[in-house]
Amino acid sequence: MKTSYYNYYIPYGDDYIIYNGLSEFYFTVSKERIKLFEELLKNPDEYINLYPDFYARMNNLRFICDDEINEMEFVRLKFHNRQHHEEYHLMLLPTYQCNLRCWYCIQEHADAYMSPDIVSAIKLHIHKKVNEEHIKLFTLSWFGGEPLLAYDIVKEITSYSNQLCKKLNKKFDCSITTNGTLLNDVRIKELHKAGVTHYQITIDGIKADHDKIKRLKSVSAYETVLKNINLLPGYSTCALRFNYTRKNTKPDQIISELNQRLSKEAKKNLILSIERVWQEQEDRETERKIEYLCTIARDSGIFPVIHRFDMCYADKPSFNCIFPNGKIGKCDNDGMDKVPAHIEVDGQIIWPDGLKYTIPAIFDNKSECYSCKYLPVCWGPCPAKRKRMLQRQTNISCFLPDKDRMITERIIQANFW
Q1: Separation CA 21–CA 374 (nearest Å)
Q2: I need a surface site. Which of 266, 335, 346, 379 has the fewest CB within 10 A?
Q3: Partners of 272 in the β-ladder
Q4: Residues 6+ away with beta carbon under 8 Å from 30
Q5: Handedness of CA 351, 352, 358, 360 (dihedral sign)
Q6: Burial label, 126 (beta-carbon count in 10 A; 0-12, 13-18, 19+)
Q7: C-beta separation of 250 from 205 below 8 A
Q8: Residues 196 and 236: beta-carbon distance below 8 Å
Q9: Distance of alpha carbon 34 from alpha carbon 14, whole angstroms
């Protein structure tokens, strides 16, 4: 027997977390006993006769394995399984336009909307893909811009997809990422009937901070969004995404204002999805405030979720992103004039030179990820970053400035906050 290459020993308060990145199981031990458990896991052959039940459990949870086991094969299998080959995932950006102008947004808000011809082609494309025998789930994601500025397009394609999946006995899932200001009671009911199952709606802290970033004429964007979230229970679930910075992380005020405005039903119907604004650098004091925010959110009946390192959807072969002009790529951050493929009138996706878009792999000798012990929890840089790396250097390198600290902290956040 041998210890797993993917065991991590993580200090946590008065204890240690022993975590296996391959199985994602963990247990805690006291600081006084951590050396003992390290010794037991690193030298199983010496103690297996003394503690057979313990080692049988550790083997089942992948903390140890047989000597002949090649753990990399299990990492590859985990990666393959997370690609969800029985799912077809389509992200649609019906417009680049938005009724707000958040400072951290990456979009240029060009005045571009999907034409009726593109909508027709997309429906034909969906029909082709959902009819493929191996596809069991069709996932439709709406993004933008602000997708609800193209409300009729959203409703038309969602309803068509939902009815098609019902007819073919396929599962259907539909989500909308929106600023929430264009929702109302009628639209929520109509979109629910069409097949929308989930919303992601953003807040930027307390009301005063939110309304400085998201400005509406004569009304508060914050009050509008919270009122609309109260309408969602019974129709769709909600991820209330808090985009945090050093300046807007005010835990007590945030939870107090949410408690004042959200009904009990709305709080049960949502998760608080916490994400650092991408332009912000990590800040230890802010991270401590986020930990405290998670604690008081949970105490108030709001379930917090910290973003985990995970596979990017662009790593999934059965994922495509269609832009307002009918161009197609694998990353919604790409500009619509820069992506390589396009959709034909019959719904077929055409890739340049007849070649399907390929993504630089993390399982080759040009990747530092291949030998990294954190590979099965991190999955390396996103595909777009990997591609850019290979355009300017010979290998795929780690994108984290302090990976030991950052990944182990994220494990703690995801499992203990």
Answers
A1: 7
A2: 346
A3: 240, 304
A4: 14, 15, 16
A5: negative
A6: buried
A7: yes
A8: yes
A9: 11
Maximum CA pair distance of the chain? Answer: 74
Can you tell me whether residue 275 is helix, strand or coil?
A: strand
How far is C-alpha 349 from the chain's CA centre? 25
Type of residue at 88:
Y
In angstroms, the Cα distances linking 410 to 81, 243, 281, 329, 404 are 22, 17, 15, 29, 10
Task: Give the Cα separation of 274 and 239 in Å (integer).
Answer: 10
> For residues 381 and 378, what is the distance between their CA atoms, to the nearest angstrom?
8
Task: Name which of 403, 413, 306, 376 is nearest 23 in CA terms.
Answer: 376
Residue 247 has a CB neighbour count (10 Å cut-off) of 11
Sign of the CA dihedral with 325 first, then 217, 271, and 197 last: negative
Residue 65 in contact with residue 4, Cβ under 8 Å? yes
| Residue 154 · residue 148 · CB < 8 Å | yes
Name the DSSP letter for residue 221: H
Measured between alpha carbons, how far is 379 from 156 in angstroms, rounded to an integer? 36
Q: How confident is the model at residue 399 (pLDDT cuts 50, 70, 90)?
A: confident
Specify the residue for token string 């990747």: 367
Rounded CA separation 187/166 (Å)? 22
Can you tell me the distance from the alpha carbon of 180 to that of 188, in angstroms, rounded to the nearest whole number?
A: 11
Asked if the model's pLDDT at residue 243 lies above 70, the reply is: yes
d(CA 248, CA 193): 36
Helix (H, G, I), strand (E, B) or coil at 106: coil
The two structure tokens encoding residue 85: 């080959």
d(CA 407, CA 58): 23
Angle at 117 between CA 111 and CA 121, to 5 degrees: 115
Tell me the C-alpha to C-alpha distance, in Å, between residue 130 and each of 123, 124, 329. Answer: 11, 10, 19
Cβ atoms 295, 417 nearer than 8 A: yes
pLDDT digits (tens, 9 = 90+) for 122-140: 999 999 999 999 999 999 9
Alpha helix locations (H) across 239-374?
251-261, 264-268, 284-299
403, two tokens:
């990976």
Is the pLDDT at 107 greater than 70? The verdict is no
